[in-house]
Amino acid sequence: MNARYDLKQIMDIDKWHKLQDSMSLVTKMAIITVDYKGVPVSKHSQCQSFCSEVRKDPALSSYCQKCDARGGLEAVRSNKPYIYQCHFGILDIAIPIVVDNQYIGAVMAGQVKLSDPDVPIEQIVTRPPNAETDRKFEVLQPEYRSLPLLSYEEVEKIADMLFHLCNYIVEEAIRKSDMLQLYRSSLTLESSSVQALQSELSNTLIENKLKRASSVYEAVHTLLQPAFDYIYSHKHDNAGLKEMAALCHVSPSYFSRVFTKETGENFSVFVPHLKIEWAKELLETTELSVNQIGDELGFADTGYFIKTFKKFESLTPAAYRKIYRKKR
């Protein structure tokens, strides 16, 4: 499998490692980042002394590598964090980094023990009985006992947090990398081609923004997906809460509660807010008049469109376009 993106090229690894160190301190987990081949792109943050000693042993480190490989594979298959136990019964997590449905790397976290050991967690690699291994384990008992203890609930929350945080940071890094690449390309173009490039850049930004928004909501709550699919494909319409609830096959009151919980905004605020974001893109990237943009997005009249725009942006659409074009 070839990845479109190289983590080392799109990210400032030094800054990433500082962030990784901070996440490790907060979560009490050892963390390392690998590319899609499983090759580390960062140093290990807070590697526990027990695991460090085990990985120095040629016979035991091969089992550690098998755990990493199989854990990463399971995470990619499910496209979500995979929690498992290593060959020493220590808890680890493989957190996939997936952009545009393509696996580009993973964050490997863990080296902790469960405070509630009765929770059934798969041990993906086992070792055959070996007297020498048992002796080494006995020598490392103090280090093993000093491993951090976490509840399974804490582990699940940490895994979810790392999954969303890491994927968001990588997506933003890729977006900036793509923009920089387009800008560099513009330096070699004839002046007649600059306008075409600007249009391509704007379209890329709009597409990425809508794609990120759609994928976020799909990941957050699939119940709402029919509503978001409709909203994004019918920008001119002004469907109400009852219609969207019926589309999702739930009551209006339940739809409203779930929508507000997952998006952070009431439905009546979210939709006009989203339309204003679309309006800003049209003001930046087209020559459509304010009246045409308002009509394109289903506002009853130009006056209402201007009033709504000013409510969210604290200035009129015309003023926004003028300020944006001065900055270019």
What does this structure look like?
The structure is a single chain. The protein is an alpha+beta fold and 328 residues long. It has 2 domains: 7-150, Beta-Lactamase; 189-327, Homeodomain-like (Arc Repressor Mutant, subunit A). Helices cover 62% and strands 10% of the residues. It has helices at residues 7-10, 13-27, 49-56, 58-78, 131-139, 141-145, 152-186, 191-220, 225-233, 241-247, 252-263, 267-285, 290-296, 302-313, 317-327, and strands spanning 30-35, 82-85, 91-99, 102-114, 149-150. Strands 1, 2, 3, 4 and 5 form a 5-stranded mixed beta sheet that branches. A hairpin with a 2-residue loop joins strand 3 (91-99) and strand 4. Helix 12 crosses helix 15 (317-327). The longest helix has 35 residues, at 152-186. Residues 225-323 form the HTH araC/xylS-type domain. Keywords: DNA-binding, Transcription, Transcription regulation. This is AraC family transcriptional regulator.
What would the average pLDDT be, to the nearest integer? 82
Q: If you compute it from the alpha carbons, what radius of gyration comes out, rounded to the nearest whole angstrom?
A: 25 Å
User: How many domains comprise the coordinates?
Assistant: 2
Shape: elongated
**Largest sheet entry:** 5 strands, mixed
Q: Spans with pLDDT under 50 lasting ≥5 residues?
A: 209-220
The proportion of residues in beta strands is 5-15%
Order of helices and strands: HHEHHEEEHHEHHHHHHHHH
Find the structural class using helix and strand composition: alpha+beta
The CATH level-2 architecture of the largest domain is identified as: 2-Layer Sandwich
Number of helices: 15
The percentage helix is: 55-70%
Instruction: Give the N-terminus to C-terminus distance in angstroms.
Output: 40 Å
Q: Give the name of the CATH superfamily of the largest domain.
A: PAS domain
Strand runs, count: 5
CATH class of the largest domain: Alpha Beta
CATH topological fold name of the largest domain = Beta-Lactamase
Domain HTH araC/xylS-type: 225-323
Protein name: AraC family transcriptional regulator
Organism: Paenibacillus glycanilyticus
InterPro entries: Homeodomain-like_sf (IPR009057), HTH_AraC (IPR018060), HTH_AraC-typ_CS (IPR018062), PocR_dom (IPR018771), Tscrpt_reg_AraC-type_HTH (IPR020449)
